[in-house]
Amino acid sequence: MKCLYCQGLMEQDTSPVHIDRQGYHLTFDTVPALVCSQCGEAYFDEQEVSKIQAVIDAIEVSSVPLRQRQLPVAA
């Protein structure tokens, strides 16, 4: 398979994933992916994307009370 951006060779490897969403930040250091040997672009399998989405969904469900809670602000 060739990279859609630079036409480089895609190789099975791992890639980090960084997610910034609604006041929280997630980092997955080594997610299996096809990674371009030339430009580093990563393509993730549907299975990996589903796992990441499941983590995001779990965080959103469990963090709702935190978002609704008012914290006092120091003067």
What does this structure look like?
- By secondary structure, this protein is of the alpha+beta class.
- The protein has a single domain (10-66), classed as Ubiquitin-like (UB roll) (Roll).
- The protein has one helix and three strands; from the N terminus they run βββα.
- β1 and β2 form a beta hairpin.
The total of helices stands at 1
Approximate strand percentage: 35-45%
Order of helices and strands: EEEH
User: What is the strand tally?
Assistant: 3
Profile the largest sheet: 3 strands, antiparallel
N-end to C-end Cα span: 58 Å
Mean pLDDT: 88
CATH topology name: Ubiquitin-like (UB roll)
Query: What gross morphology would you assign?
Result: elongated
Strand order of the largest sheet: 1-2-3
Structural class: alpha+beta
Rounded Rg? 17 Å
Low-confidence stretches: none
Number of domains: 1
Under the CATH scheme, which architecture would be assigned? Roll
CATH class: Alpha Beta
